[in-house]
Request: fold
Amino acid sequence: MRRSPIVLLLCLLLLFIGAACAGTEGTVRMPQPYVTATSGGFSVETLYYLRWAETWTGEGWLAADGVPVGEDLERSRDLFDRYTLTREGPVTLLFSGEVGHENPTLRVYDESYALVDKYQGDLEAALAALEPGTWWCSVSVTLEGTYIRSQQRCERRGYECLFRLVVE
Reply:
């Protein structure tokens, strides 16, 4: 069944403020996702960016996709001052206990915001291999929300957790 754009926008707005769409079996605030990047004794939490969501409306599942983060990096560049890490030795990624990171993906963008590469597996080795420069790094994570008993699955959201990495 096709939903109108107004309904989709309303549900996305509700997802952003942490509420569930009308008709869900419970209203549980989803935790904020985060990944912490650490190097040389310094740490930064990442800026999280909603990438996609699946929510139960009471009548069916509603799925929504966000704008790919690469298309929004340039507009968000002023936010990255507080999400910048200088690589001083190995970079370690610490995931909060609430995010799914069994198969994380790392996307690396260059200073012109072009996607340079996409990695799965050993993300820390990929970060160690980056040459000198300024890199925009995005780590994909998934959060599970309210369990919908009648559907035997959880509402879910996918995020990209972003930070800027300076390699000297």
Q: What stands out?
A: The two ends are 53 Å apart (CA to CA). Helices lie at 5-16, 73-76, 123-128.
